[in-house]
Design a protein that fits this description.
- Helix content is about 45%, strand content about 15%.
- It is of the alpha/beta class.
- The chain has a single domain, classed as 3-Layer(aba) Sandwich (Rossmann fold), CATH 3.40.50.
- The protein has a 7-stranded parallel β-sheet with strand order 3-2-1-4-5-6-7, sandwiched between helices.
- The chain is globular.
- The mean pLDDT is about 95.
């Protein structure tokens, strides 16, 4: 007899770590995982935002933990790992969501800013996957969800988006996802990437407000993603509903990459 579909999406008892989980897409995904029963750990650099996010997640009645952490720093990743292990004893779901961009023409991009973008957008996911992946290997179960971007799949019009560091780092994250999925399939760890299109968040609000018409014209649905538009794919990839899915790269972009 097959498992009922609603049970396949159930995350009760599973531990999910969401980086950049205090605002934007990170909070949206953390909220969805909490709604479906996961014990959720959110981390971000700004402690004041974590308190408000934690209060929001607690409305689902599950366990929530927040931790101030700069995931681009190895010692802070190690501390986060130890805190999660002490509190929950394991990790079943890792959402590598924290990211940054620096907007500048290629010829003017400062090397320091390029490096900062890569440190957070690709080196941090590697360090987090390594730290929590060791636990997943031991328990022979896990789902890693890397939040890349459609900017990592195609070149972008500089009149609407002009951050070569962001696109390059997200492209690296896409292939990191595919390669890690192959290497860890033997351990029953699934690794997938979500590539959002344009969602208005703190990281890009000023960019959108400066040229909304240009950005909207590049989206076949005609508008940016909303405050619930990434929830479904996050729960699906975290749950047994996607247990035969690994190495996938899934655009959530209003059709932008289908042009």
């Amino acid at each position: 007899m097959s498992t009922p579909l609603k049970d396949l999406f159930d995350l009760t008892g599973r531990v999910a770590v969401v980086t950049g989980g205090s605002t934007g897409l990170g909070l949206q995904m953390a909220d969805a995982l909490a709604e479906f029963g996961a014990k959720v750990v959110i981390c971000a650099r700004k402690a004041e935002r974590l308190a408000a996010a934690e209060a929001q997640l607690r409305r689902w009645g599950g366990e929530v933990m927040s931790a101030a952490c700069d995931v681009s720093r190895p010692e802070q990743v190690a501390t986060l790992h130890d805190q999660v292990m002490e509190r929950f004893g394991g990790c079943d779901i890792l959402v590598n969501n924290a990211g940054r961009a620096w907007v500048a023409p290629v010829e003017d991009m400062p090397l320091e800013r390029w490096q900062q973008v890569f440190d957070l957008n690709i080196t941090a996911p590697f360090m987090l996957a390594q730290a929590f992946g060791r636990e997943m290997i031991r328990q022979r179960r896990g789902s890693i969800i890397n939040i890349a971007s459609i900017a990592g799949l195609v070149g972008r019009n500089p009149d609407a988006y002009n951050s070569i560091a962001y696109g390059s780092s997200k492209g690296a994250l896409v292939n990191f996802t595919r390669d890690l999925a192959i290497k860890w399939a033997r351990h029953e760890i699934r690794v997938n990437a979500v590539c959002p299109g344009f969602f208005v968040t703190d990281i890009n609000r000023k960019v959108y407000e400066s040229r909304p018409e240009k950005i909207d014209r590049e989206i076949p649905l005609g508008h940016p993603g909303g405050d619930a538009d990434i929830k479904g794919v996050a729960v699906w990839l975290a749950s047994d509903a996607s247990r035969f899915v690994t190495g996938a790269v899934i655009p959530v972009d209003g059709g932008t990459t289908a042009w």
